[in-house]
Design goal:
six-stranded parallel sheet; 28 helices; 26 strands; elongated; alpha/beta
């Protein structure tokens, strides 16, 4: 029988698909889809239901989103090995606790976006499968766990394991409403954390069973089917006991039991259970009507087996089963179904989608089968209801539902980050500042300049150099040279290298700096960004204002003078700010230079003008968004206003800095949360919480210290101390970005982990912040000593 082809049926089908049990996740996300998802659980060719499910889910994800988005980590049972497909990247040994810990290290090391674990107590080692906890505890990325078993009356160990899994998981997926209810009521899992995504089913056509019967040599017969791995809890003997009554009315009935004996049972008992079924059929005189297909069928063969069935039977003997993959597949194929009332069956077969019979009741099974065989109309109506109900649970829909759950997990991790579990966790800022360590700065610098990026702690030569970073490096080396007299020669050498890079970057014909230089010393552009020009000018002004080296000052002075004219053409407020910082540093040494005074005031007036035009009651900022290096804008305005005696400028700078600091304060604590670079903060929208960058912390510290130095208000120093704690672990993940072993700084905070690369911008931002904090702390201590001396 095929489906009727008419408009009324198609309309009904569309309506029922929209109402079928698929997940609807509220809210939207601007996050891109995860690029690398690790699926942990059994995987084909291992013979078990979890392996089939994991493989089917991965294949569905691959079909919808591309095979490159996932890989699998299966669990091997003791003394077993499998010829896995290429999707399997790593294997867990069920009873080897070390393999779980190393798998977590592997995933953390490779910066995967998300992990999806398939949980069933029996597939993991340890008491109640507790080995999986050592894996989950170490993960740094979002975790989504699918629970294939939820027990209403768990023992102590089972409860402890599942409750911790639920706690560690960002989201928990179950396949039935019953399972979701038990998670809430028995395990106290918050409802908002649970997604109900029904078991996926193949997208099969609604077909006449006779199409497949010749495959099994049962053409012209009525076929009853049970499939899946054989074990005594499946209750197949009860269907065999029902066969004499069924055959008395319908002698053409055949009962096919398709599936290999469960591997664990076969290892313990061999084929004793299968043999007992054959013996029972012989005793009842129905052996000729029983086909035991002793093999683990492929997905293609499964379609043929299910397709051939007139009635599908799941005679399981116990109620405590929240999901049955075989039942879901039979429903998706539009089969008439008879089942015992285990939890998943009662839910799936409600509203006339199947017949429920009592446990261990062969007479009830016979009665239900006979009723369906006698009434073609009832059987076909049941088939249609089952088929239509399952349309929203086909594997493409399931893949989309899982991806929506993954996206929600990532979004929630961003808005509610978790403390990273790291051994070097520093929860509070110590009284003293970290010792200065320039090892990584030196490692990142060659005879051309400082490399832009690092791969962990190793310079990434392939991505070359930038004027941006060499300008930052020149500021840091000048500060090092100024405060570390005993080591001055070393840092002076660095300054020469970085200043030489800026000379190379400057194009005299355009009066502009180029920014990106390849490792082959070929420039990748003719003119760099306005910001890179501004940073270069800032570093040159710092040399002129702070360095004692006559050669450096001479070279910096000539380049500074050549670079100033272009600044009047700039339109970027940040470029103006960087230029103002450089001009003021220059004026600290040459305060009488009226040309540079005028240039500084011109750019500062522009900065004040954009602030006054953009500022509103609840938005005290220069633009309609907060983006990068934000605090440099108020810092420049404060400096220019103070030194030009411009009260409006000073007031605007202090007001905007105060607002910025308050906007970067976590609501429930005094933790610094810099505006994230993954979307920034547009007025009227939500702030991007990640990725948090060291350059933001550095800029805000500098601005606060400038405010304290000029106003004498030590509350600003306290703010700088609080923000500096972000580098040392007082942040959303409660884990340090500064690496005391190398002197480098990690590249930022993601919602689930720290970026372990220690690039130039991050390391220089930390060193600049540390040097400025050291200088401010020393100045404050001297002020305190003077105050004490004066009081005596």
């Amino acid at each position: 029988m095929s489906l009727p082809e008419n408009n009324n049926f198609e309309a009904a089908l569309d309506g029922l698909i929209s109402a079928s049990p698929t997940i609807a996740l509220s809210g939207s996300t601007s996050l891109p889809l995860p690029t690398r998802i690790a699926f942990v659980g059994n995987y084909l060719p291992r013979q078990c239901g979890i392996a089939t499910f994991t493989t089917d889910l991965c294949n569905a994800i691959a079909a919808e989103y591309g095979p490159e988005r996932f890989f699998a980590i299966p669990v091997n049972d003791p003394d077993s090995s499998y010829d896995y497909p290429e999707q399997v990247r790593l294997e867990l040994a069920q009873d080897d606790l070390t393999s779980y810990q190393r798998a977590a290290d592997f995933l953390n090391f490779n910066s995967n976006d998300l992990v999806c674990v398939q949980h069933e107590y029996g597939i993991y080692g340890g008491v109640a499968g507790s080995h999986i906890l050592s894996f989950l505890r170490k993960l740094k990325m979002p975790l989504v766990t699918t629970l294939h078993t939820v027990l209403r009356e768990p023992d102590f160990d089972q409860r402890v394991v599942l409750e911790e899994i639920a706690t560690l998981s960002d989201r928990v997926i179950v396949m039935s409403a019953q399972a979701a209810e038990m998670l809430r009521d028995v395990y106290a899992v918050p409802a908002k954390k649970i997604d109900v995504i029904p078991h996926g089913v193949p997208d099969l056509p609604f077909m006449d069973p006779n199409y497949f019967k010749d495959t099994f040599g049962v053409e012209g017969k009525s076929v009853l089917l049970t499939f899946g791995l054989l074990s005594p809890n499946k209750g197949i003997e009860n269907v065999i006991r029902a066969l004499p009554s069924i055959l008395a009315s319908y002698p053409d009935v055949v009962y096919i039991v398709s599936g290999a004996t469960h591997p664990h049972l076969r290892k313990r008992e061999g084929e004793r259970y299968r043999e007992s079924l054959l013996a029972l059929a012989e005793d009842l005189g129905v052996a000729a009507k029983l086909i035991l297909s002793n093999r683990f069928v492929s997905a293609e063969e499964l379609i043929q087996h299910v397709g051939a069935a007139d009635i599908y039977i799941t005679p399981y003997r116990h109620e405590a089963q929240v999901v049955s993959g075989t039942l879901a597949v039979a429903l998706g194929a539009g089969k008439a179904i008879v089942s015992t009332p285990y939890w998943h069956a009662k839910e799936l077969l409600a509203d006339g989608r199947g017949v429920i019979v009592p446990f261990d009741d062969p007479d009830a099974i016979a009665e239900a089968v006979l009723r369906l065989l006698k009434s073609d109309g009832e059987r076909h109506a049941m088939r249609k209801r089952a088929y239509l109900h399952s349309r929203g649970t086909t594997w493409p829909n399931t893949a989309r539902a899982y991806m929506a759950s993954f996206q929600r997990a990532r979004q929630e991790r961003m808005s509610q980050p978790r403390a990273a579990r790291q051994g070097d966790l520093q929860k509070t800022l110590a009284n003293g500042l970290p010792m200065l360590n320039t090892t990584h700065l030196l490692a990142m610098t060659d005879d051309t300049g400082i490399f832009q990026h690092a791969i962990f702690t190793i310079p990434n030569c392939r991505e070359g150099y930038t004027t941006d970073d060499n300008a930052r490096a020149l500021i840091v080396s000048t500060l090092l040279d100024d405060c570390q007299v005993s080591a001055g020669a070393k840092y002076s050498d660095l300054s020469q290298r970085y200043l030489s890079f800026l000379w190379l970057a400057f194009h005299p014909d355009s009066g502009r700096f180029r920014n990106f230089l390849g490792y082959d010393r070929q420039w990748l552009e003719n003119v760099g960004s306005e910001d890179s020009h501004g940073r270069a000018l800032w570093s040159l002004g710092t040399v002129l204002g702070r360095s004692q080296d006559a050669g450096l000052r001479g070279a910096a002075g000539r380049l500074f003078e050549a670079a100033v004219p272009a600044t009047f053409t700039f339109t970027s407020p940040r470029a103006w700010a960087f230029c103002i910082l450089g001009m003021q540093a220059y004026l600290d040494w040459f305060p009488g230079d009226r040309v540079i005074q005028g240039a500084r005031n011109t750019l500062a007036d522009r900065l004040l003008d954009v602030y006054e035009r953009s500022c509103s009651i609840d938005w005290h900022w220069f633009e309609k968004s907060l983006s990068y290096s934000n605090a440099r804008l108020p810092q420049a305005l404060i400096l220019a206003g103070w030194h030009s005696n411009n009260r409006s400028m000073m007031q605007a700078g202090m007001q905007s800095l105060q607002w910025l600091v308050s906007e970067q304060l976590r609501e429930d604590s005094d933790v610094f949360v810099p505006i994230g670079s993954r979307g920034f903060y547009v007025q009227g929208d939500q702030k991007a919480r990640f990725d948090q960058q060291p350059v933001e912390a550095c800029a805000t510290i500098s601005a606060c210290l400038e405010a304290q130095r000029l106003t004498g208000d030590k509350r600003w120093f306290a703010e700088a101390q609080r923000i500096f704690g972000w580098f040392l672990g007082k942040n959303d993940l409660q884990t340090p970005l500064y690496d005391p072993s190398t002197g480098g700084c990690r590249d930022g905070l993601h919602p689930d982990r720290v970026n372990e690369n220690q690039g130039a911008e991050s390391t220089l931002s930390f060193l600049m912040a540390l040097l400025e904090m050291q200088a401010a702390q020393t100045a404050n201590e001297l002020d305190s000593e003077h105050e004490m001396s004066a009081s005596h």
